[in-house]
Amino acid sequence: MKYIAIGLGFNLFWLLAVWGQYQYVGILIALLIGCWLFYHRSCPFALIASVIGICGDYVLSQLEVMQFPLPQDPLFAPFNDFIPLWLILLWLGFTSMVWVMREQVQKLPLWGAMMGGSLGGAISYWTGLTLGAVIWPYGELITFIGIAVVWSLYSGYLLWLLQMMTKREIA
Description:
This protein is mostly helical. It is built from seven helices and no strands. It has helices at 2-18, 25-38, 42-62, 85-100, 102-105, 110-130, 140-170. α1 (2-18) packs antiparallel against α4 (85-100) and α6 crosses α7 (140-170). This is DUF2878 domain-containing protein.
């Protein structure tokens, strides 16, 4: 039951970030802080794990594989040259959720984590496309496949990092 609640909570977080974008940044930050206060080790894991995802999205945006609509609020304009703040917060929320669910995630075989992450990540970005949060100039099929490959590698990295940081927590 705990993991179902966590999964539903993350889906709400995802929806606030992707569908709401800049409207709910304050709520996203408050939810992250709450998670990090309750699960202390989720913060360091999220900060380390999110760097590769955030940088990967930055590279994809610089290669124009993904484009993001510009924010209407000038407060968020500085993120125009990087990636949207809501996407950075989404990465932090996702990796925090992975830490909280680490017992279940670590039970997955490497191939299972990579396959599930590959499809889940690509479907998540495709859903963001359908909600207008991202634009795929190269078309849906080729971009979906590319994102699936990237997420497969990212999922393997996350599993490895979970194992390394869990060992450090025990030691």
